[in-house]
Every structure is written in structure tokens, then in C-alpha cells.
């Protein structure tokens, strides 16, 4: 499950799982979370250094210090680092420390960021995960991706992470039909983030299974070695030691689709 191609690009034919904490909090915290990602057999390690928090009073991430932790830990464990870029001025340092950039839901239609990321990716072996905005149609999402590809970025992965609906039992509503539609309309890989969609850890495994069964090309899952102590999104984080059983439960479904 999930494997890097010889040229360093994300292999388009492999099922990929990106896992790790919402946010880099310290070297020790991030290393502990990353070891569990490695032990589960996943190859992509996520962690935010620049965090798009709803409240300006919430922890905003460690910034460049966080980027250094990400690249050190990913390098030490042989994992591919994935981290969000929020501002064009951070594209260069983010690319220095992570192979895969993430553009968050709140920036899906930040067209100047999309164009700058596309131009920066041209001719590199970096990739970008473009989250779907929580109020964006599938068409708007695909057009946002084209801002990146038409500016030179080739290795773009789409990520469905839930949209806003009237339902309040989950943080957002996972739009699995949007995943299938996006896959019909686009050649880009489509992965699913059940963590932000649900906002609660008890739904992460069932939604992951459903996403794989629906034909998603991969997942992005938040995990933490001590979810109760997480500085961000702890309520949706899978305990890190449960990543191994997540991998086990997905394997036969991925093999069957
Ligand atoms: C995240 O991945 O931590 C995140 C903030 O995601 P989103 O942009 O989907 O809310
Ligand atoms: Mn998060």
C-alpha cells in the first residue's frame, strides 16, 4: 500500500495513505507520531507547521521551526513529508523541507497561491495535495487544480475533506459522491480525508473503508501518539497505535476494487 516511484514522484498507480498529526508541536511529539506511521507501513507523513486556524487565538503552528522538524523526522524514518503552505512567501522553505505541499480547504480558491505553487513545482519532483474547499463544487475544485497544472505543476492530488451541510453530528459531511464524480471528470488521483470530514475519531475507520470501496486513490488520516494532549484536532486524531489495524482493515478492500 503506497509506494514511491523510482523517480521520486508519487506513483499514480499506488494506493497511498498520508498519516500523522494535525500539527507539529515538538520534535518528540512529531517523532513519536511518525514512528507509528512508519510501523503501520505507510509512507507519507503529514504535519502542519503553518496552521489555518479558525481563531487567531488558537495555536498557529511552529512555522519554520516546524518545517525543520518535519524534514528531520521524515528523513530519519525514510518517510515522504507532506505539509501545508498558506502563503506564497513560504513556498520556497516548504519545498526545501517537504516533498509534498498541501493547499488547504480555506485556500482552494486562493488563485495567486495556486499559480505560484504551480510555477514553483514546474520541473521538480515535488507534488501538491489540493484539498476541496468546504463550500466548493466539484467543478470549482477541478478548476482550482487547473490553476496549478496550467502554471506548470504536474503532480497534483485532489483531496476530499468534507463539505458544509445542515448536518451537525459531524464537523463536515464527507462527500463520497464528489469523489466518484471527480474521478470520472479528472485524471488526477483523488484521496479522502475522513478526519477533517467527520471531526470525530470514531468515524475515521468506517469512512476510510467506505472511501477505499468507493474507489479513492488514497487517504489522509490524522493520528497522534497522545490524542488527548494534541494542540490541534485531537478529537479527530486516531491514536497512533491504531494505524496498524487501519492498514490491515483497508488492505482487502483496496485489493478488491
Ligand atoms: C489539515 O489538514 O490539517 C487541515 C487544516 O485541513 P483542511 O484544509 O482540509 O481543513
Ligand atoms: Mn487538522
Automatic annotation (TrEMBL):
One MF annotation (Gene Ontology) recorded for this entry: transferase activity
The UniProt entry, under Pfam families, shows: DAHP_synth_1
Which keywords label this protein? Transferase
Entry's Gene Ontology BP terms? aromatic amino acid family biosynthetic process
Gene3D superfamilies per UniProt: Aldolase class I
Domain named DAHP synthetase I/KDSA: residues: 13-250
The domain of life for this entry's organism is Bacteria
Q: Which InterPro entries match?
A: Aldolase_TIM (IPR013785), Class-I_DAHP_synthase (IPR052899), DAHP1/KDSA (IPR006218), DAHP_syn_2 (IPR006268)
Protein name in the entry = DAHP synthetase I/KDSA domain-containing protein
Query: Which classification does the entry list for the species?
Result: Bacteria, Bacillati, Actinomycetota, Rubrobacteria, Rubrobacterales
